[in-house]
Amino acid sequence: MQRLATYVFFIVCCGLELSQLKTDQNCLREKVITFPQLTTTSWAKLHPNESMDMSAVTVCLRFYSDQVTGHPSLFSLATPSLPQDFSLSWSADLKQYQMVIHNTPVQFKGLTFNLNQWNSVCATWDATSGLAQMFANEVASIRKEAGPKTAFKGAPAITLGQYQTQYDGGFQPINVFTGFISDVHMHKQVLSTRQIKTYMEGKKYKHGDYINWHNLKFTIAGSAQVEEKQQVTFHTKEDQI
Ligand SMILES: *[C@@H]1O[C@H](CO)[C@@H](O)[C@H](O)[C@H]1NC(C)=O
């Protein structure tokens, strides 16, 4: 028994040592994940409690960056059959946001991106209407037809700061994000515009029932790290829930 325990301990320690992975379950309220390097070896993975069976989705997050070129990926969700099942990215080259639904990209123009400031972004989609909408810094996009009208199903691999071109990997330099990401919430429904506005204003907003930043299981790798929001940016505190 003791031998087995030692063996397991050895594997766990060496595994961690070799890949420098760190998995945690934590409240990340008032915290950011910092991505300090343009490298495909730094990332954060989020681990939801259950596999997906959702016919609607809302993802909200805040990001802060100084990238003026490339196509940084903010949120990338892959399933074994659909490597780009859902994703959110900012194309600095084209000055537009991109949402991908079931491997089908849809672009949103004219939404704001503020250099070296917090950008609050929400994206919604539901399988009944097949319509996608994005919100950035209290500006709403139009609603656009996007993707096949089928539910999200299966065990997802969710990565922040990189774009998954295959299930759980295949990162490309053009899609690397540098900066801060915070307040990531994923809901199994389309939030109302009022609820989205509350999130944008940092007031008492609804936490995700699929991914909740305030109770998050995550793994970070490479130079990605968790830091205090008020220590790295000028930031007025969010309302306590
Ligand atoms: C996931 O499970 C943990 C532990 O039971 C729980 O505290 C947390 O709230 C759950 N997360 C979500 C988003 O439901």
If you had to describe this structure to a student in words, what would you say it looks like?
With 241 residues, the protein is mostly beta strands. It has one domain (42-227): Jelly Rolls. Helix content is 12%, strand content 40%. It has helices at residues 2-19, 193-200, 229-232, and strands at 22-26, 31-35, 43-46, 52-54, 56-64, 73-78, 86-91, 96-101, 104-109, 119-126, 131-136, 139-140, 144-145, 152-154, 157-160, 179-187, 211-212, 216-221, 225-228. β11 (131-136) and β12 form a beta hairpin. Bound molecules: 2-acetamido-2-deoxy-beta-D-glucopyranose (NAG). 2-acetamido-2-deoxy-beta-D-glucopyranose binds at residues 49, 209-210, 212, 215.
Features:
19 strands, Jelly Rolls, binds 2-acetamido-2-deoxy-beta-D-glucopyranose, 9-stranded antiparallel sheet, mainly beta, 8-stranded antiparallel sheet, 241 residues
Give a quick summary of the entry.
By secondary structure, the protein is mainly β.
The CATH topology turns out to be Jelly Rolls
* SSE series: HEEEEEEEEEEEEEEEEHEEEH
Number of domains: 1
- The Rg value, from CA coordinates, equals 18 Å
Number of strands: 19
In helices, the fraction of residues equals 10-25%
Number of helices: 3
**Average pLDDT over all residues:** 91
Biggest sheet architecture: 9 strands, antiparallel
Estimated structural class:
mainly beta
Overall morphology: globular
Using the 3D structure, state the CATH architecture: Sandwich
Strand fraction band? 35-45%
CATH class term = Mainly Beta
What ligand species are in this complex? 2-acetamido-2-deoxy-beta-D-glucopyranose
- Calculate the terminal CA-CA distance, rounded to whole Å: 46 Å
Spans of at least 5 consecutive residues whose pLDDT stays below 50 are 4-18
